[in-house]
Each structure stands twice: as C-alpha cells, then as structure tokens.
Design goal:
This protein is α+β, with helices and mostly antiparallel strands. It has a domain of 189 residues. Helices cover 37% and strands 23% of the residues. Helix 3 runs parallel beside helix 4 and helix 7 runs parallel beside helix 9.
C-alpha cells in the first residue's frame, strides 16, 4: 500500500467516483423530470476519527470523537460522497486526512471547513466539464459545517445549497418583526405546521427569516414521532420543505459508511508505518465499502433496513456458503460452509 504516494491514492478514488457519476448522469439526463427526480443527487460530507496504535505518524493528532464524546488521539478522515436517490447507490468522490497543526512555528493546517470547500470545488469542477445541465448541488452536513463563509461559497461558486442542522444559540428575525432564538424554534408550538406525507404522525413548519450571520435563510422545523424536535437551516431557497427533509435524512448514509469502514472492514485493525501506506489502507477500504454496500443492497433487494443489513453482514458473513457464489476454488480445501 505504500508503493504509491498519497496523492495517487486520492486521485484513484476521485477518478472512480467521477466515472460512476458521469455514467449515471448520462443515463438519466435526457429522461423526463419525473424520472430524474428519482435519481436526485445529495452531496453529503462528514468526518470520523480512526484510532491509531503504535508508532504515531504526522497525521495523528488530538481530535474530538463524536462517538466517544471526548477528545482522543487518532487520525481524522473527511469523506465526501454522493447519495443517489434514496440510497440506490452511495458513491464516494473524495477523501482527505486532516493534518494537525504544527506544535512549533508555522501556520495552522487546513481545518475541515476549508477541506470541504476544496473537495467540493475540485469534484464539482471535474463533473461540470463532463456533464451537461447538471443540477446545482445540494450539500448536507452537520452543524459543525454551518459556517457563514462555507454556506456563501457553496451559493456563489457552485450556485448550490448547503443544508445544516441549526443550533439553539442562533438568532433570527421573522417577517412579522418577531426576534427568536434557535431554542424557541425547538420548544414553541405557534408555528405554521403541515402534516408530513412521508412520515406518519410527523409534521414540519417552513419559515423564511433573516439571520445576522447568514442573511436571508430558510428554516424548516421538523417533528417526528419518537424523536426530539430539530430544525434545518440553509440559505433562502425555493425548494419545498419535504425535499429538504428527505435530503437531510440521506445524511445517515455517511454514518452507515463509517460504521462499515470501522466494524465490517476493520479499518482500525491495520496499523501501518507510513503516511502513504495509511492513505492507501483507508482509500482501499472506502472503495471496498462502496462494493460491499451496493452488493448487499442488490442481494437483499430492499427487504431489510440498513441497520439490519449491517448486523447481518457483521455477524453472519462467516457462515456464507461458497456454493451460492460459486467460489469453491477460493475455499482452500475447507468445507463448503466457510468458517
């Protein structure tokens, strides 16, 4: 894995992701709007902390772990992927490892906001050169990415929309002159509610407001049975609230992707000694996750949820009968039921 420099590994991932997206777009670009709506692209980004044992590389730093709710040593990887439709296919298009700031003299390294901007710019520019009439990107990320500069960059450069979860501390001015905070959106009941056709018992409220930081924004308050109320925030848009809610729900696919990398593909088990080898190790598993999730969805044909799918793969893969896959020659003279 260390035979190639890290930039070559990243280029291979970018090239494969772009080729898949170009083929998918050319397949539907001349179809009706109704057909294209079933193949909508949702751009999703998030970062995750990978544990690193043994020799510490220059990539190892102290990062916040959302899973453990504390800071710890590790390698912080930032992934950008495109969700096709409601999850027909999940295509990774870029991946970087954030380098920690130097301890001595020197400027700080790129933070994840800057890295996401770089990844979006180079992926969007490459796709625009090869795809005609490509819709502006709808980018979904958690509240950590809700920074005014990034939201404005997506709107001005890609002519797209960045959708994030709002915070309790945000302040908004409503058209009727009221001034509310994010916590008011989460607790007050006097909003123009609409029943959700996609979530039984769910409802939403769509507001147009002005923020001191973001300017004119669209706010969508969401209530779903069994969940705490939350609200979504993006620059002012004509997109309807159900479209924004569906896009936000597709963010869960990147969480499934990280779970697949860590638990099924044992990304943290391999502890290599060089940065180039670690990039190769991570990107190979990102590509393996693409193949694994797509193959599993084809085999299960939508009969199980993603949580059930991951559980089945994690706990029952060792009982797979090689006869089903016609892989007798790969069983190394073991019994047909491979252990």
């Amino acid at each position: 894995m260390g035979a190639l420099p890290k930039r070559k590994w990243v280029k291979r991932l970018q090239r494969l992701g772009q080729e898949l997206l170009v083929c998918l777009w050319r397949h539907v670009e001349d179809n009706s709007p109704a057909t294209r709506s079933r193949w909508q692209w949702t751009w999703v980004s998030d970062d995750s902390l990978f544990k690193k044992y043994g020799q510490h590389l220059g990539l190892v730093g102290i990062w916040w772990s959302g899973q453990e709710h504390r800071v710890r040593l590790g390698i912080d990887g930032l992934l950008l992927l495109v969700v096709i439709g409601d999850g027909k296919l999940v295509v990774p298009v870029d991946f970087v490892v954030r380098r920690p700031d130097p301890a001595g003299p020197g400027g700080p390294c790129r933070d994840k906001l800057t890295w996401l901007q770089v990844m979006l710019d180079r992926s969007w520019a490459a796709l625009q050169r090869r795809c005609r009439r490509l819709p502006a990107p709808l980018v979904v990320a958690d509240s950590w990415f809700g920074e005014t500069g990034l939201m404005a960059h997506v709107a001005n450069v890609q002519h797209g929309t960045l959708l994030v979860e709002g915070k309790c501390s945000y302040v908004f001015s409503l058209p009727d002159g009221r001034r509310v905070k994010g916590q008011d959106l989460l607790h007050r009941a006097d909003w123009p509610w609409h029943d959700s056709a996609h979530v039984p018992g769910g409802r939403y409220a769509r507001l147009t407001a002005t923020s001191p930081s973001y300017g004119r924004v669209t706010v969508v308050i969401v209530e779903q049975p069994g969940q705490d109320r939350y609200y979504l925030l993006c620059g002012q848009t004509t997109m309807v609230a159900p479209r924004l809610i569906r896009a936000w729900q597709r963010r869960s696919w990147i969480e499934h992707g990280f779970r697949t990398l860590k638990h099924l593909l044992a990304t943290e088990a391999c502890q290599v000694l060089t940065e180039d080898a670690y990039y190769g190790h991570l990107i190979l598993r990102v590509l393996a996750g693409l193949v694994l999730m797509y193959t599993a969805r084809v085999l299960f044909k939508g009969r199980v949820t993603m949580e059930e799918l991951l559980f089945s793969l994690k706990h029952y893969w060792r009982f797979l009968e090689s006869e089903c896959l016609e892989l007798h020659r790969l069983s190394w003279d073991l019994r047909v039921e491979a252990a």
